[in-house]
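Board notes (copied after class):
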Amino acid sequence: MREKKEYYTGMFQWALLFINCTAVVFICTFIYMTTNRIRAHYDARNFLGNVMTIPDNPRMNLWVCLVLLSMLVINFIFRHFLQSEHSRGAAFSLVAELLICVVLIYRLDFNYNGLLLLVFANVIAYIKDSKAKMGFLLLAIGGYLLADYELLSIYMPLFNMSDYVRYYTFTSQQWLSCIWNSMISLNIILFVGYCFSVINIQRGTIEEVNELYHDLQNANEQLSEYADMAEKMAQTNERNRIAREIHDTLGHRLTGIIAGLDACLALADVAPQEVKKQLKVLADVSREGIKEVRRSVSELRPDAVERLSLNAAIRKMLTDMGKVTDTQIYFDAGEEKLEFGEDESNIIYRVIQESITNAIRHGHAGQIWVTLKRIDGEVLLEIRDDGIGCKELTSGFGTRHMKERIEMLGGTIAFDGQKGFKVTAHIPIRWGETYD
């Protein structure tokens, strides 16, 4: 729709150029032909007796006006097709157009000043800076008011178009006056139509701005809703993460303590000294558990991983668990010294911790094997035990969150409960073929 409006506005500009060029050519040609007619009929004495002044050289005046009109058309085409409406070239082109129009009006002895309406239209079309536009308009308006034939003829000798029209018969005078007045009126009508077209475009622009404003308001509301939703999702994810961390920390420690207490109950009557040693170990494990719970609540990062390397943290965890239970735990980290990013270390530590806890609590395992090594472009994490296994695997809190954690790293995890229980995780290496 906007393109269509701009098309009609451009057509008004071309029509204004055409009607003004036609009017100038009509005046110059009419004066030239009438002068030749007067000479041919030897009516110069009678004609000169009825007029105040005549053009110096009608033929030369015709050619000068044709050259100026050619310059005006070329300037218009150059500005319309080659110059940006925001460029200085457009301003220089308008100045040149104004000068050409002033010279043409002067050559016509101010009998026609409609050319300045063309200047008005082009100033409105091409000048966007308000100060520059106001300057051009004031200049053009001042020129339009001063270029009035009735006013200037008082102070200087000017030929009158009407004197040449009166040379012809009454019928011819009517036709000539009709043609001349029609061109003047058509020029004004085209100018008014052009102004309405520009106003219509600006009104459409205002409507588009209003629509855009409403769209932005709607988008802002949607963004606010999305932000609220994202905040709620972040809170939910954080709750889930805290739940996982507390589950891993408390669950792992309490499983070891319960297993140790069961052993104490079994040994209480037959080996009191062993019970004391076991209770001392359980007390130490409990203190470490309290420290880790406190630290997990504040930072949600395993204390051992914070203080030690991942390998050392895993070995300490397995050693502590072995002390308080009768389970034999073996750890194979391969020959390489593997180091991970903070998020990877936390997740690997928690997956091993949860797997060990499940093997002891639910599988009643006597032996557990933990493997952590690099194979090709990924890290293999495997935890298997000789417990009772699980023929029908159901997704519990621990296994579900182990899967969530491994998927955070872009890896996969599988569970097998046919012979004992086996957890296998494949984690892609993110920063190269090996970890330094």
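Comment from the instructor: The beta strands are 328-332, 367-375, 378-385, 412-416, 421-428. Residues 2-167 form one domain.
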